[in-house]
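This part of the workshop introduces the protein records we will be handling. Getting from the letters to the C-alpha cells is the skill we practise here. The record below serves as our worked example for the rest of this section.

…
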Amino acid sequence: MALSPWLIWFLSGIVVALLELALPGFIVFFFGLGCWVVAGALQVWDLTAAQQVWVFLAASVASLLLLRRSLK
C-alpha cells in the first residue's frame, strides 16, 4: 500500500508535534506545523519534492518566528 505524499507529510507532522512532549524548548512543534502546511499545500497544488522541502522550511521558520513568543 503506497501512501500519498500529503498523507506522509500529515502523519510526519503528528509525529514531530508529539516529539515536543519529549523534548524541551518548544521549537520542534513548529516543524510539525511546517509538515501540516505542506500537507495542505499538496491538497491544492501538485508540488515537486524540492518545492515541498522549500515550503516546509519556509513554513517552519515563519511559524517559529511569528508564533513562538505568543504561544509560549
